[in-house]
What we know:
The complex is a heterodimer. By secondary structure, chain A is mainly alpha-helical. Chain A contains 13 helices and no strands. Chain A has helices spanning 2-29, 35-40, 46-56, 62-75, 87-122, 127-140, 144-157, 174-208, 211-218, 223-251, 255-260, 266-275, 279-307. In chain A, helix 5 packs across helix 8, helix 5 packs antiparallel against helix 10 (223-251) and helix 9 (211-218) runs antiparallel to helix 10. Chain A is globular. Chain B contains twelve helices and four strands, in the order H-H-H-H-E-E-H-H-H-E-E-H-H-H-H-H. A two-stranded antiparallel ribbon of chain B has the order 1-2. In chain B, strands 3-4 form a two-stranded antiparallel sheet. In chain B, a hairpin with a 2-residue loop joins strand 1 and strand 2. The longest helix of chain B has 37 residues, at 108-144. At the A-B interface, helix 1, helix 6, helix 7, helix 8 and helix 10 of A face helix 6, helix 7, helix 10, helix 11 and helix 12 of B.
Amino acid sequence: MARFLVRRLVGMVAVLFAVSVLTFLIFNVIPNSDPAQRMAGKNATPQLVASITREWGFDKSLPEQYVTMMRKVFTGDLISYQGREDVDERIVEGIPATFSLCFGAAAIWMFFGILFGYLSAVRAGGWLDRTLTVLAVTGISMPVFWLAAIFLNYLTYKTSIFPSGGYVEFGEDPIEWASHLILPWVTLAILYIGFYSRVLRSSMLDVMNEDYVRTARAKGLSERRVMSRHVMRNSLIPIVTLFGLDVGVLLGGAILIEAIFSLNGIGQYAYEALKDADLPPIMAITLFGAFFIVLFNTLVDLAYAWLDPRVRLGASPQ
Amino acid sequence: MVPDSIAATGPAASGPWRLALRRLRRNRVALAFLGLFVLILAFVLAAPLWANEVAGTGPNKTHTLEKIEVNGEQRDVVDPTGQPIGPVWLGAGGKFFLGADGRLGRDEMVRLMYGGRTSLFVGLVSALITTVLATLLGLLAGYYRGWTDTLISRTLDVVWAFPVLLLAIALGLVLAVGGLQIGPLHLSGGSIWIPILIIGFVSTPYMARPLRGEVLSLREKEFVEAAVAQGAGSLRVMFGELLPNLTSTIIVFFTLNIAANMLIESALSFLGVGVQQPNASWGTMIAVGLELITSSPLLTILPGTMILLTVLSLNVLGDGLRDALDPRSKVRFEAHSGLSAPEGSETIDGLAP
């Protein structure tokens, strides 16, 4: 166990290092991305460009620039090229909105995903199963930003049922907080409900065919007990896995949803920084997001071993 | 839908492919969506025909200051407030069937057809790239194991650890401005090949990982041992023995991957780093339509609905193919973020319809 953890920890650091190098390279090796030129503007004098280059150290070698940037990421001194803001501060400011969006949507999609998946599996082949399956596939087949825009148009602009974009702190006014988040939550959840209910349905159908379920029925357990103790417990393993991975991705910011609902979270910050090709915030946000992805990948492996005793951590191929 | 007992009482089986085809033909839902997909394909392929013969305009041609005759009445294509004309159906002999697309006064119907060509082309070709790359990487990693596997798997881990959309946007942003130079081949910034390459690249780990897992288990089977005993070299084992056994998985992955890649294309184009203006794709059309969503919601709804219908039909078709090609083992790959459930979840499934 300890050896597994140490190995995974080293692996996490190595992956994050590679991610940071790759991000740095994307913005430095590919031509036409001289940051000094962009900061100085279109009609800048060569002197201005040269002084910006010196001031920000763009004339140093790439490895030197990389080391400086990474040091600043971790000491909190990172300043964006555009607007010269403190990057780490903006990310910390964005955390409440992004995390509220992620966990709220996750609660909704877990509830409905499990409910629909369960109903589909229990009534497999019936009309309820078919209806839910059609709804689920439709849910995963929509561009999420498009659905968001349609909701916003008909439920906010046209009818004012929900307040238009923006994020209200929970501590400031919990009701406003929730009412501003309902549409983003639902939009995001629809995608995942479709996904989770399909996975749960097929994993339940698999488990229901296992010998130990037949044994449980044969020894006279009630249908309810068979379902809750034997079927559900084992069918939920893939759901737990997916949940960890998806939450890991979303904690790094949901770019499209946050941008459309102007939630002022990390995803929206990423969107703004990307529009300006502003490397420092992109670097910090990418690392922030990658950190959660890698962390939750490891957590999922641990949870998996805990839920399924057949999995041995040391022997895991991943 | 139809019980499997029919298959058992049917005529003697003649090869797995024919059996699969028969199973697919019995899956009425999958067939219906195959029909829908063929209709969409016909719709986008008819683009030049409609543009030349009916609408008399091109997808990027602007008609800002023009007037058209609708049922004998002169109307502005774009009125002085900047509001484009709505659907006139056949009122102008097929011109502006679905109205104009915004201030530039381009024919929405023509753009919808040409935009669909672009979206489908990007989805299809990028899925081809993903499939070829993922198959090669999966075969190499799973067959050679050892340090080859370590190298490939770790590289995939790095791409996997990236927030996918962030990586695609960053690449799109830099390449859309600067273009791309690969050896003697130069792609200019607005080239459609830039989003194709980016999407093909970022989706690769999600397909390569499960394929590698399958190769790892296949290579332990007796038929591989038999081939090696007959003196087959590495290449023959990989492409002559292992690849044919991966075909059904690859076909399913490919179908679902087109769907997933079309969704990524729409997101990138919507953010301005995918297909570049003035070229139409369903994603860029949503972006243009959003500017007028309160007054002309149809301009947003139409291209999004086309994406929905196309992706939906591909997803249902992919599921149907999976059931038909291998009804017992379930390949868990979803056209979503592409995340697959843990490996080794191959089980017997007799209950699924």
